[in-house]
């Protein structure tokens, strides 16, 4: 009987916290140059969990969010969903905002594979957005095809 309980507890622990980001296979693992990523990006998909889940349908309907990364290192955003974190792990949708700031290509972390190989992950760091969305990962293996913003636990995607 103790073995069955131990297996049940282990199964719950393994399913409670995934050790990976479900979008990790999309991340860019070779460092792009500024000219490779300059351009306009628009929301195509939204995956929201927890307290933001109800906001997802509204954001999908609105669908006008755009971020323009300029070659000179500045960016503009239009109708950016403004997510605030009034207390840790608690998020609040505060409407849409327009604005801008500066940006740079940065290493945002690493991604590992089941065979033990680890590769760097690259993205963009924004000066001018709230802390929760100040960094986004690039997508695309050989050519950057998009951005992924992660709210809350990065392992949730």
Walk me through this protein's architecture.
There is one protein chain. By secondary structure, this protein is α+β, with helices and mostly antiparallel strands. It contains 3 helices and 7 strands; from the N terminus they run H-H-E-H-E-E-E-E-E-E. Strands 1-2-3-4-5-6-7 form a 7-stranded antiparallel β-sheet, with no helix packed on it. Strand 4 and strand 5 form a beta hairpin. The protein is globular, with a radius of gyration of 18 Å. It starts with a helix and ends in an 8-residue tail after the last strand. The N terminus is likely disordered.
Shape: globular
- Biggest sheet, strands in spatial order? 1-2-3-4-5-6-7
CA-based gyration radius: 18 Å
Strand content: 35-45%
Kindly report how far apart the N and C termini lie. 37 Å
Order of helices and strands: HHEHEEEEEE
- Total strands: 7
Helix-strand makeup class:
alpha+beta
**Helicity range of the residues?**
10-25%
Query: What is the tally of helical segments?
Result: 3
Largest sheet: 7 strands, antiparallel
Low-confidence stretches: 1-19
- Please, what is the average pLDDT? 77
